[in-house]
Amino acid sequence: MDLTLLLIQLLNGVQYGLLLFLIASGLTIVFGIMGVINLAHGSFYMVGAYLAWSLTAWTGSIFWALLLGVPLAAMLGLLVERLFIVHLYNRDHLQQVLLTFGLILIFNEMQSIIWGDDPHSVPKPDFLQFSIPLTEVQSYPAYNLFLAAVCLVLAGVMYWVVQKTRLGMRIRAGSSNPEMIQALGINTKVLFATVFSIGTTMAALAGLLAAPERSVYPGIGEQVLIISFVVVVIGGIGSIKGAFVGAMMIGLMDSLGATILRAFDDVELMSGLSVDNLTSVTVYALMAAILLWRPAGLYGRAH
Amino acid sequence: MTVVPRWPALLLLAAVAIGLALVPVFGETYAIKVATRMIVFAIFAMSLDLLLGYTGLVSFGHAAFFGLAAYTLQIYSPEYEAVNIALALPVVIGVTAFVGALIGALVVRTSGIYFIMVTLAFAQMMFYFFHDSQIAGGSDGAYIWVKPVLAVGETILIDFEDRATLLWFALGLMLAVYGLLIMLLRSPFGQVIQGIKVNEHRMRALGYDTYRYKLVSYVISAAVASLAGFVYACIDGYISPELLGWKESGIGLAMVILGGMGTLFGPIVGAVAFIGVEELARERELVGFLADHFQIIMGCFVIAVVLMLRNGLAGSLGGAPRAKPDPVETEVPGGEKP
């Protein structure tokens, strides 16, 4: 394994980690403040990805798609909160899991009805079509760097919002003591709706941004949802810092782990099972190891 | 806290059991298959209810054991001859319980929302294990070409090739599971796990090692789920990684809630009703083009159940008394009810 390949995998891991952070942070905030497990979080990623595909086809550019897609996603998030999630505050986790499970079934079928079941690819913007050469044979696509940079900026913006603004103050207060902020006269109804809408919009934004790099196909929402769950559990539920650390760990584990395991693809553990088949299993093994060490995640408090 | 089903519950259970038992007499192959699936999921939902309704553990990865059992049967069966049930059933239960103990030892350390997410993650791990490797056909799934038989020496007593036999066998299994779980819940062990559900701290203060009780409950639940997986694999003889998927786990949860959590016979009713609705939602004459997208109907159905049926179908019929007493009533003795 040479060094350039390792560098490429490292970059891939960081970029995937940043993308995961964008998705998982929304999931963790919604749980931290509202106490709601939203299984349908991945569906918003899926909606974002499909919006990227149809809006890019319509307007001709992913940037227009972003500009139009984000407000659409925010409205969808608000609608879902008003119609369904509002019934889930103060209900137990089981009912939250079930209702949002029902939402996933509906979202998936709506996707199949509206957009069909074929996979699609979304064109990258012209000026990001090139690749940056690293050696004579290997290069790194510019769009992936752009994607990483945008995610990094968004993470910075989120840090600023949470730490420095009034809304962020309420979010932080809400995640440590929801009853108290209500007693202090803050309208939690508006706060919850805002937070839910922001959280789901971030998932949709991640879907919009990632669409040109990964293709758009049925079932992407669930894939993303379950891996974000792993991120959130590793970091500690409700902790944004934890989501960042967890996302980076999973991102790097996914790309570097896959590279390392692929080097052993001729090693058979038993008939039909070779070492590189275990790539998808490694991230879950990482999570299991961390939970053995800290049952509430790296930065979590026991809920 | 006694777990004695009341008369309406037993009558309904008897009606359901007799109804299912008569399907092979009047129905065709398809009806028998649907009825067998109802029984399979009734067993699966009961195993889940032991965790949800009686131990207070919300598992979102229980299909892992259901699917693992199906895979174990496929791998254990010889390719061109029938496997003997007397050998295969203990192997399937044993393997599943063993894996359940391994996973349980880890997941039972966590609680609440962590438990939900961690059980999901372990189920996904097993899903990818079977999906990405070439064991039993990988993502394509695999077939059990010759269905299991129960044979003593050379005489075949039970042959699962006959669909009616399979249904009756499954029904017997379901009733046996129901009876055994009721006995379990009435035993001192059952009383302890129900105590853990209501207040784990108090049980620990009383000196019970709650971790071990929860772990044993988890393993029993996995073993019961393996029975469901065993029968399921015999219906069509086809298994695929989707059996371990999180959608199956979610459907199990929906059945328990639909029927009524913590009632044990509720999940039976829930499974029968859920699969009944699913069959209706696939009926083209009834729902038109939505038959191709019947999951949208199931999604709405699940949401409606959560919002409207908080005690489940069994809640109003009076199954076993719910484990959780109303805190307001117990804390204000002699107080007037509002």
Automatic annotation (TrEMBL), chain A:
Q: Which GO terms describe its molecular function?
A: transmembrane transporter activity
The transmembrane residues are 16-37, 97-115, 142-162, 190-210, 216-237, 244-264, 270-293
* Domain of life of the organism encoding this protein: Bacteria
What does the UniProt keyword field contain? Amino-acid transport, Cell membrane, Membrane, Transmembrane, Transmembrane helix, Transport
GO BP annotations listed: amino acid transport
Asked whether the UniProt record includes Transmembrane among its keywords, one would answer: yes
Q: Name one GO cellular component term.
A: plasma membrane
Query: How does the record classify its membrane topology?
Result: Multi-pass membrane protein
Q: Where in the cell is it found?
A: Cell membrane
Q: Does the keyword Transmembrane apply?
A: yes
One Pfam family this chain carries?
BPD_transp_2
Q: Which CDD domains match?
A: TM_PBP1_LivH_like
**Family per similarity comment:** Belongs to the binding-protein-dependent transport system permease family. LivHM subfamily.
Q: What is this protein called?
A: Branched-chain amino acid ABC transporter permease
Organism classification: Bacteria, Pseudomonadati, Pseudomonadota, Alphaproteobacteria, Rhodospirillales
TrEMBL record, chain B:
Q: Where is this region: Disordered?
A: 318-338
- Any one Gene Ontology molecular-function term assigned to this protein's record: branched-chain amino acid transmembrane transporter activity
- Record-annotated membrane-spanning stretches: 85-107, 113-130, 166-185, 215-239, 251-277, 289-309
Q: Which keywords describe this protein according to UniProt?
A: Cell membrane, Membrane, Transmembrane, Transmembrane helix
Annotated compartments: Cell membrane
Pfam families linked to this entry: BPD_transp_2 (PF02653)
One cellular component term from this protein's GO annotations in UniProt: plasma membrane
Q: What is its main location?
A: membrane
InterPro entries, alphabetized: ABC_transp_permease, LivM-like
In the bilayer, the protein is annotated as: Multi-pass membrane protein
Q: Could you identify this protein by its name?
A: Branched-chain amino acid ABC transporter permease
